[in-house]
Prior knowledge:
There is one protein chain. By secondary structure, the protein is α/β, with parallel strands linked by helices. Strand 28, helix 26 (905-909) and strand 29 form a beta-alpha-beta unit. The chain is elongated and about 130 Å long.
Amino acid sequence: MADAPESTARDYRDTVFLPETPFPMRGGLPQKEPVILEQWGDLYGTLRAERQKQNAPLYVLHDGPPYANGDIHIGHALNKTLKDFVVRSRFLLGYDVDYVPGWDCHGLPIEWKIEEQFRAKGRRKDEVSKDEFRAACREYAGKYIDLQRDQFKRLGITGDFANRYATMDFTSEAAIVAEFHKFKNSGQLYRGSKPVMWSPVERTALADAEIEYHDHVSPTIWVKFPVTGVSDDHPDDLLAFRSSTPSIVIWTTTPWTIPANRAISYGPEIAYGLYEVTAMEEGLEFAPWAKPGDRLIIADKLAEEVFRAAKIATWTRVYDINPSGLETAHPLAALDSGYGFSVPLLAGDHVTDDAGTGFVHTAPGHGADDFEVWKAHGHHEVPDTVDPDGAYYPSVPLFAGLKVLETEGKKTGKFGPANGAVMEKLIEAGNLLARGRLEHSYPHSWRSKAPIIFRNTPQWFIRMDEPLKSGDTLRETGLKAIDDTAFHPAAGRNRIRSMVEGRPDWLVSRQRAWGTPLAMFIDKQTGQPLHDAEVDARIVAAVAEQGADIWFTAPDADFLGAHDPARYEKVEDILDVWFDSGSTHAFTLDPRLPENGYAGDRPAHWPADLYLEGSDQHRGWFQSSLLEGCGTRGRAPFKAVLTHGFTLDEKGEKMSKSKGNTTDPLTIIKESGADILRLWVALVDYSEDQRIGKQILQTTVDAYRKLRNTVRYLLGALSDFDEAERLPLDQMPPLEKFVLHRLHELDAQVRAAYAEYRFQDVVRPVLEFCSNDLSALYFDIRKDALYCDRPDSLRRRAARTVMDEVFSRLTAWLAPLTPFTMEEAWTTRFPDAGTNCARVIPETPTEWHNPAEAERWAAINTVLEVVNEQLEAARRDKLIGGALDAWPTVTAPAGAFAPFDGLDAAEIFRTSGAELVEGGETITAVVAVADYPKCARSWRRVPDVGSDAAYPDLSARDADAVRYWDQTHG
């Protein structure tokens, strides 16, 4: 039948049920998200109240505090977004969630900023009172808490911001002091004088967690220590006058420690020999410091390497030497009587013959191994050679006042004159054998980025290996707690376990101003801390009321009560900031435990269900919290630990402002919206280091568009849907049963993934479902029925019923990840139903589980792929304009079409018709043009176009739909 003349044909566009929705295609997130935030109001309070009315189980995520300094960066955004995924997904799973955001406020970065501010006003730090300085630090931290809080909220982070915690709050400082007192009073605290990592630039001791390693070039020297004493076990001619005095040779990368040398360590299992130099290399541009006839004692394995460094050409090995019982002179003894002491040889397990000379220069004030071997051999006096600024004390012969490291100006962190001066004096004394340079990994302060030194100072430590009340040591208790903790990913357990196994005693004192003090008194007669519960109580009460500043300003008598202030020394060191943050559970969770009498609407429980931070916190917050909890309560303050990697640029390089390769989360939010940044977090494998940049974000935007367009299509397709239209499962066509089966599968996957913090395993399967099952299959097949069937047709009702179920689940599943977009979608459809964030995942009927239907559609898809390929080829060849112009003939082996039983193959292929022919060994398709008139409404070319006289240009189905439309529209 010929098409009706265009001039007289009816326009059927009004009769087609096209999707309608005010939900726009473009997100406009930067403008829309702030409006949604305002509409949410106190969303967190709303959600907690809702779950508590439902008697929901309690889940506690304890916040690891970011530092209150500067705008948030991409690491903050990743961390806080992951935490928000946890909070929102637990609400979604039906929990009442306790999450109190917090801030770390004490410490050096803020001190430096305040020092800069005072210097800009012409005032040095020592010209500012501690009270004024601390007040300025407090004000600075408060400013950035407010700033970061607002930036986190803009990112969509939901939490108890109204009751946020900060380590500088008076009640927090009081709780930290109380936790410290528990260690003091249990005997775990002691004062020791030993070498600690010391930052001359920052003038304070540092703990392992405050150290990072960088490549560093150090001078290396080989130094001769002349032998002055032997035992009866040594050969008689070792010190014979006819031969030159033998020297033990040491090698070190720290020439500045030579003035602090007090011994030489050797390895009892190492083979040593006495060597005599017979000839030097010739043609050198300088005169070497060795000469023929010199006799040197070296480990046999390293002798050749030493001689090469000293430009020694030939030598003779005289005989074996056992270093035990030897004594030497200090190499500078000839220049100053201050070095006129004897230097003994000490056996040490730490000595190897892997590098150097097989002997270790031992300066007990500047190395942990040096200190331990010195003490192990009965020596108690440890010399002090370097002051807090990294300069030699005035008492150090030859080198008084010289700096090891520069601490001011443009050369801050560079070597001072000490190394050079020591080497010159060794040359003058005739005891420098060789020197060179070595690039090696060296510890630096993670704050100042300057090298550190090891320096003997009196400090306060918490014992790792002293038995507690339980009988186990803190180390043993911590290791057991690690074994009892769930780790995500599991590799985190081994990482923190190895750190705790090998860590030294916990150094908790710092010589700075801005922090929580070690608020205790020391008995001047015994050197021991005062143990008096009433004194401790007065200290804690005063700090809770007036802050830690009161410790530095109030008279000692205010705290000591009946004790004589003259007998006691007030400790004014501050606590390691890791002790501060490691105690956060004590003042954030403890006060809100029902067992402690709390009856309010913000209950918590202890231990927390989860701690979540970057993988560097295995040696930081995770570990300090572990040790603090184990030392005061006998277990870790967490049940599980989740770690994430670091964020790199698109090339996989570390971000740096100097490189210009940083990605600013605030810029992303301003230009694209918070949901784009959140979707990026959801898509990455957070357990590894992730990458971000313009190209990666564009990929994220593309993924977002797929999600948004899926939701938009559903909203349009569900316009005016009501319960009367809903169809029961037993009346559903096979395609709808398949989609419901997929919802059932996904529901289980999503719940499990959220429960196990696998957010990537939520969003990726949902994205694939949207692209493959919905857009490419279901929506495409059903759009004809949706647009052109009469509204009361079972097929259309079935489609809309299933789309309602899809919408209900998509908006719930994705609510924790892209909350703004899902809120917009939900409230577009249900403006009076309350926030989407308060929903729980809808229960999914078990009857939806239908593996047979899944198997059927997998088989159908195999045929469909062949047909689609041929349809595309026909379009390219301009045989057809669109699929509705086609009438393919599909040939396949026997049984291949069984899945099509009861189905309309043309509907599945989205063609006007189709022929299925059994035969052959493979699936093939031949596309022909449909040789029937084109329906003016649905554009299908089918035999029954014109079968209804009232609508001669329509198919029978479309004629029936238009008649229904005409009747209902007058």
